[in-house]
Design goal:
It is a single chain. By secondary structure, the protein is mostly helical. Helices cover 73% and strands 6% of the residues. It contains seven helices and five strands; from the N terminus they run ααβααββααββα. It starts with a helix and ends with a helix.
Length: 181
Amino acid sequence: IIAGLIFITIYTKKYKLKTLRILDMIVVGLIIGQAIGRWGNFFNGEAHGAITTLEHLKNLKIPSFIIEGMKLNGAYYEPTFLYESLWDLIGFVVLIVVRRLRYIKIGQLTGIYLLWYGFGRFFIEAMRTDSLMFKDIRVAQLASIIMMITGVIIILIRQFESRFKNQYRNINEVVDIQKRK
């Protein structure tokens, strides 16, 4: 994702395109791709949570093939891949609905994606047992916090940007009127 973001930024600058507009188009496909991609973790037997019981998994009302797939080395594990896949699937629906809203501004869909994905990933990562760690910090949780902060900043800046431009225009009009007098 980071490499893709770097490429998109370079590409949009080279061809004088609006980076946030392109990202708004990409994030809808990205989140559904992430939802599907998490199933690769299931098939590889990775990115799972802590050891749990067969009863707990049955109480989750998940299909038996997932329950059996979560049995690794004789123990059952929490299916965090499934939680993230479902979270991303819901996020996909949210992004589809939001992008149809009349007053959504360029970049806000990207901000919502960053906020949505970062929020879910932060909590799901806390459940995983195979996280990449930097000292005592889970790298994915740190990245999630950065994503959420960036998402909020983008949403707020894009929301209030037009108001600031209008106020700036009004100030310039007053200055022009003053100069004419």
